[in-house]
Specification:
This protein is mainly alpha-helical and 223 residues long. The protein has a single domain (22-184), classed as Four Helix Bundle (Hemerythrin (Met), subunit A), CATH 1.20.120.1730. Helix content is 93%, strand content 0%. The protein has helices at 2-76, 79-104, 110-134, 142-222. Helix 1 (2-76) runs antiparallel to helix 4. It is rod-shaped. It starts with a helix and ends with a helix.
């Protein structure tokens, strides 16, 4: 009878320990998943948000340089300096095209794709005006030409601003996701601590019970 009772108690303990082991393995799997998600979030934040935001800054820098060169060419109308400035325009155009191509390779939200397409259209329209200078065509109405190019660059600046705002918005969403994942990891850690405490209590209880049974058996044998 005593043997059956002891076996039953050991079976309960074994089942409990098996449950603890299963919970520990599950928590481990979930933690690995969380770590992977956090890693992906940080990689995405760097590759798809931080780097593109920097590229947008360089893009704006090249566009403002182009704007200055175009205005200078129109204002001065000097054939000697015009050749040098047209070369500089070509360099900035190449930089702009490279940055746009690089930006397109990153992860883009639907809204971001829309703004980028609009930016490319505006850049194309701006290039058509720029070709008047590159093809040595005479700009008869300088004020009107400058007005048109200024309006074009302002529209480009608006699109750059919209893209920059998306970078910030999506970046904030990634931070929220990371915080959520981190809170999940913290929860799993707390559960592991609780399981460790329960196991410790169980071990103490088993040792105490064993000592009580041992003392009882010794008294029984003495009698």
């Amino acid at each position: 009878m005593r043997f059956a009772h002891t076996l039953k108690q050991k079976s309960k303990i074994a089942m409990f320990l098996f449950g603890v082991m299963a919970c520990t393995l599950l928590i481990r799997v979930l933690e690995d998943k969380n770590i992977k998600e956090m890693n992906n979030a940080f990689i995405s934040m760097y590759n798809d948000r931080l780097i593109p935001a920097t590229d947008l800054f360089y893009l704006a820098e090249n566009l403002y340089a182009k704007r200055y060169l175009i205005k200078t060419i129109v204002d001065e109308n000097n054939p000697v300096t015009k050749i040098d400035m047209i070369k500089k325009l070509g360099i900035h155009d190449a930089n702009v095209n490279t940055l746009i191509a690089k930006y397109e390779k990153t992860f883009l939200t639907p809204q971001e794709k829309k703004y980028l397409d609009e930016l490319k259209k505006q850049l194309k329209a701006n290039s058509q005006m720029e070709n008047l200078l590159l093809n040595d065509q005479t700009v008869y109405n300088k004020q009107e030409f400058i007005k048109q190019t200024t309006a074009s660059f302002n529209l480009i600046a608006e699109k750059l601003t919209e893209l920059t705002q998306i970078q910030r918005k999506v970046g904030e969403e990634l931070i929220k996701d990371s915080n959520y994942v981190a809170s999940g990891s913290n929860l799993y850690s707390n559960i592991q601590i609780m399981l460790a405490i329960v196991i410790g209590i169980l071990i103490v209880a088993i040792i105490t019970t064993s000592n009580v049974v041992k003392v009882a058996n010794e008294k029984f044998n003495l009698n």
